[in-house]
Amino acid sequence: MATIADVARAAGLSSATVSRVINNHQYVSEEKKQLVYQAMEALNYFPNASAQKLRSKKTNTIGVMIPQLTNPFFTYLLEGIDRIATEHDYQLLVCQTKNNRFKELHFLNYLKAKQVDGIILTSIENDWATIADYHTYGPIVLCNEYTYQMLVPMVRLDQQEGAYIGTRHLIEKGHRAIGYCFGGNTSQLTIDRHAGYRRALNQFGIPYKKDWIFRDAYDLEDGKRVFRNTLEMDNPPTAFFTGSDQVAAGIVKEAISHGFSVPGDISVIGFDDQPIASVLEPTLTTIKQPAEEIGSNAMNLMIKCLENHIDPSEMDIQLPLQLIVRQST
Amino acid sequence: MATIADVARAAGLSSATVSRVINNHQYVSEEKKQLVYQAMEALNYFPNASAQKLRSKKTNTIGVMIPQLTNPFFTYLLEGIDRIATEHDYQLLVCQTKNNRFKELHFLNYLKAKQVDGIILTSIENDWATIADYHTYGPIVLCNEYTYQMLVPMVRLDQQEGAYIGTRHLIEKGHRAIGYCFGGNTSQLTIDRHAGYRRALNQFGIPYKKDWIFRDAYDLEDGKRVFRNTLEMDNPPTAFFTGSDQVAAGIVKEAISHGFSVPGDISVIGFDDQPIASVLEPTLTTIKQPAEEIGSNAMNLMIKCLENHIDPSEMDIQLPLQLIVRQST
DNA sequence: ATGAAAGCGCTAACAG
DNA sequence: CTGTTAGCGCTTTCAT
Asked: CA-to-CA distance for B245 and B3, rounded, in angstroms?
């Protein structure tokens, strides 16, 4: 493989000039520029990326931490991130954490190793204090999940409001026994959603029951499991607020397969507004999160951080969420 | 940020020894090894990835070309690739081509730039001759899509058989007007599926009609569009073979919303067996592709290529596909 | 078992 | 506008 020196030799110029042409510097005469292009062409030359990164201390790569590649919410997030990354010639190193805090830690070290210029987190598996340490080595942008412990660049939704609206909707439909499903961690997002659920309950004088709280609910199978578990309860929920359309779909499917009618006997509300929400029968009432937009905003924030012109007022972007009423409630 | 020289100094050793410890070389005394570990710890040292790559000419990174990040079939492929990559400490640079051949070309150049050690293609947008040129710069593994023009490492399914089985199933259900939906390109996979469809038609003496061929069908919306288009036809299909569950779901949804019954009036068969196939009402008959397994096999092949011990007989891996009969046919 | 030294391929002062 | 030169941080002979 040809090197920059080979090109310089072939063009009868110095490697510095070749480098200038590669990097589109000004002050290179059109004549020599053509000479360089011809030589590069003739030698089938392509600059070595590692050498460029080592020397320039810029990788043009962003690490994106994703808990689950097969969860559509996160792929839409990724789609938004990728759209902006492509526009600005950044590459994406995709890091699947599987909700494992050690994997998250492992990937965070890419920042220290200068393998990436910055990291976008779409979930948070470690204490914030642990993550904050890495901030010295490059920008960390939060997207979807967030923290109040520090002012960091983040793109988020009012999750408490989302859970409140959803729960209130179920109450207004006449339900008083409302199950609550969520993932496993103790992130701020989780805390806030939980608070929104309780706020709605409180407002309507409905007692909070621990039995109605279901954790470790991430996907369709988990939703089915949750519903099966309620079958043995003395006082089972008649409605479910869930943290994801996948889980909601599982509950709906399992309820129907056990002979219940949705929304006749059981009401279910999802979260995200993934494609599955419109495909399910009955169609799923849900809280819409603009996933693609969250992602694109996060990547834009990242670019601003990298280019050092970020106004503190832009650090915390909040996007709207929206109740979409369909047939499942 | 500390460098290897700093660590060497702090440990009272040479940088060569530190390097040996980092790379787990033999012939380093336990004593010095501990010294190095302590120094690395104290200085919060992490080796610079670009320097390692430049010097060792190994990036430990694989480029994965994906047409659509939001298409579940490809994310399951990616999931399989990622599982094996993680096990072997490889990183993934995700390249979304959006079915654009120029983007594909752009990403192929990462091989020339030694930014990745190899590339896994999950779709093919350029002529095979164009892609074959890049093979000099590192291994290219095909996964899902394939070619007969050259013996390259690939993991594939018998797509002609898949389309044949699916079409025959529709014929056996009594249909003689069978629509055929596919994506846009002219890859071998597309050609083979088309051939399988025609073979089934031929076998049962059913004429092939150009009007029943629908191209550019990739997702749910495309499926809806296809069905709407048949509404104006004199002799519309009563059944549809599709290249993806997404498209099939679109057809089913649109048919039902226009008052047709599925499978009463219209039968639809999908491809992939994505989660949506079991969630749809009626549930979707489909040709199951073991996506995760295709991906993991591809990454395993890649690793073998990189480690130079690949037997030509292992180059072409063929996995089974399977007709899954549900309610939509 | 350890160190000295060369060099991977490139960029960026600096000088002219 | 162009060339000379000094590294970026690491690995790897080659000695010892």
From this structure: 52
**A118 and A178 co-located in one domain:** no
Report the residue from B48, B51, B109 with minimal CB separation from A46.
B109
Same domain, A164 and A218: yes
For CA atoms B241, B247, B253, B254, the dihedral sign is negative
Question: φ, ψ for residue A159 (rounded to 5)?
Answer: -70, -35
Half-sphere exposure of B184 (CA within 13 A, CB side): 11
B325: in domain: no
Q: Which member of B46, B54, B220 has the closest CB to residue A51?
A: B54
The integer distance in angstroms from the CA atom of A16 to the C1' atom of D4 is 9
Subunit contact B79:A86, Cβ cutoff 8 A: no
Determine the residue among B4, B54, B69 to mutate to test chain A binding: the one whose Cβ has the most chain A Cβ atoms within 10 Å. B69
Q: Is A231 a domain residue? A: yes
Q: Residue A186 — pLDDT band, cuts 50, 70, 90?
A: confident
- pLDDT score at B222: 95
Q: What is the pTM of this model?
A: 0.94
Q: Which nucleotide is nearest to B31 (CA to C1')?
A: C1
Check pLDDT > 90 for residue B174: yes
* Total tally of structural domains belonging to chain A: 3
* Residue B328 within a domain: no
| pLDDT, tens digit, 9 for 90 and up, residues A70-109 | 999 999 999 999 999 999 999 999 999 999 999 999 999 9
Residue of chain B with shortest Cα separation from A96:
B82
Inspect the interface and report whether the beta carbons of A220 and B275 lie closer than 8 Å: yes
Decide the pairing of beta strands B285-288 and B322-324: antiparallel
Query: Is B219 among the domain residues?
Result: yes
Q: How far is CA A293 from the centre of its chain?
A: 10
Q: Which amino acid is at A6?
A: D
- Choose one of B16, B35, B55: the last residue of a domain: B55
Q: Residues B283, B165: one domain?
A: yes
| A76 to chain B: closest CA residue | B70
Q: Does the pLDDT value for residue A222 go beyond 80?
A: yes
A211 touches chain B (CB under 8 A): no
**Omega prior to A67 cis, within 30 of 0:** no
Whether residue B167 is predicted with pLDDT greater than 90 in this model: the reply is yes
Do B173 and B276 lie in one domain? The reply is yes
Q: Which of the 8 DSSP states describes residue A136?
A: G
Name the residue range of residue B122's domain: 58-157+291-319
- Whichever domain contains A62, its CATH number is 3.40.50.2300
Task: List chain A residues with CB under 8 Å of B327.
Answer: none
Verify that A115 and A42 share a domain, yes or no. no
Nearest Cα to Cα of residue A121 among A315, A309, A299, A240? A299
Q: What is the pLDDT of residues B63-106, one digit of tens each?
A: 999 999 999 999 999 999 999 999 999 999 999 999 999 999 99
Picking from A20, A35, A55, the residue at the C-terminal end of a domain is A55
Distance CA A207, CA A250 (A): 26
Percent of chain B past pLDDT 90, that is, above it, reads 92
pLDDT tens for B265-296 read 999 999 999 999 999 999 999 999 999 999 99
The reply to whether residue B75 touches residue A76, judged by beta carbons under 8 angstroms, is no
